[in-house]
């Protein structure tokens, strides 16, 4: 049975739904706009498998061989087109391309954050292209772990990529590692509430008097500073530096990431996947190694299997090794989860009553005057908590 305690720390990975022998778990949205498992009580036989298979209840690391001191690399694809069209350095595409050339199967996220993101498989380069790029919404994984298992049993090579909690979910469903399985996780900032994204887009459309058909990370003017773009139904496009968009400011400041993300048990070294890829934004390395600003990947190789794959990719990748400590220091989320935002509960209370633009203007402001007000507000909330704590202690 799915208990309330499980829901409190649920990542939305979907492993419980894939394991239920009665198929009586569906993933539905909670009031904040995150997918959680809901059990059809009439069909449930109380076997307890869902609880047993929940990755939050298991030591997933016991199932896999991980290097205690993984190596870190700054890397990117030597193929200019792949480099340009990927979110960062195209590491995923090069790994996936290798697996497909070996007649293997690749599992990853497709779709877009407005119409829905979901995991699927690719066996051709055409299918693979749809997996390129980061989609900033939680992907729907229903049925995918079972499908991976059945492909693994055929002996084909499999690459599975996703967020670290999805990698954990896959191992939990499989109950072991497979020699023909390679996993790649992304350095993860957490997943934002889809309800909040849709409210923002609706209000933006009202302001602009036109429909948004696509919202995505845009590398046309370079990888850094990160930019995001809106494509409109009338064929026009607008692109902004990430921090100019109120929705992105709220996401970056963790105002509406999933609650468990700020306690993510996978944001640590060693990482759960064989290979990890993210952005190497810190330390000014980008300017030195990627002067054309197409994107510098931070890669960590976390298992002997991961090393074997990386060695095969050396002809197609630019790769430079650095100490893992440098990578951890220069990445916000390689070794630690996103920070909790004290204003999160207020945000979710206000967003029910007021407009998205109004609420974020106050809670994640761009203007100096509002930033000062926000600081005073945070001090007030922290003091209120302290006083309440003392009162409770005196009782
Ligand atoms: C939600 C999210 C948050 C991220 N946060 C950070 C961060 O804080 N710091 C950082 O350094 N990097 C972060 N990244 C990783 C970064 O954006 C790139 O995905 C990573 O560098 C890989 O880039 P690439 O060029 O190798 O491959 P790309 O081709 O760009 O990556 C595509 C791969 O990412 C997977 N993917 C894309 N969207 C999703 C999704 N919604 N859910 C699951 N898997 C997905 C696909 O399956 C595919 O395998 C994040 C990615 C995502 C999806
Ligand atoms: S207890 Fe068994 S039947 Fe019931 S929801 Fe969990 S896995 Fe499904
Ligand atoms: S298995 Fe995943 S979706 Fe199910 S309760 Fe556990 S964390 Fe949530
Ligand atoms: S931060 Fe952790 S729990 Fe949240 S989506 Fe990323 S991997 Fe999953």
UniProtKB/TrEMBL annotation:
<dbReference type="GO" id="GO:0046872">
    <property type="term" value="F:metal ion binding"/>
</dbReference>
<feature type="domain" description="4Fe-4S ferredoxin-type">
    <location>
        <begin position="35"/>
        <end position="66"/>
    </location>
</feature>
<feature type="domain" description="4Fe-4S ferredoxin-type">
    <location>
        <begin position="1"/>
        <end position="30"/>
    </location>
</feature>
<dbReference type="Pfam" id="PF12838">
    <property type="entry name" value="Fer4_7"/>
</dbReference>
<dbReference type="Pfam" id="PF04432">
    <property type="entry name" value="FrhB_FdhB_C"/>
</dbReference>
<keyword id="KW-0411">Iron-sulfur</keyword>
<dbReference type="InterPro" id="IPR017900">
    <property type="entry name" value="4Fe4S_Fe_S_CS"/>
</dbReference>
<dbReference type="InterPro" id="IPR007525">
    <property type="entry name" value="FrhB_FdhB_C"/>
</dbReference>
<dbReference type="GO" id="GO:0051536">
    <property type="term" value="F:iron-sulfur cluster binding"/>
</dbReference>
<protein>
    <submittedName>
        <fullName>Coenzyme F420 hydrogenase/dehydrogenase, beta subunit C-terminal domain</fullName>
    </submittedName>
</protein>
<keyword id="KW-0479">Metal-binding</keyword>
<dbReference type="InterPro" id="IPR052977">
    <property type="entry name" value="Polyferredoxin-like_ET"/>
</dbReference>
<keyword id="KW-0408">Iron</keyword>
<dbReference type="InterPro" id="IPR017896">
    <property type="entry name" value="4Fe4S_Fe-S-bd"/>
</dbReference>
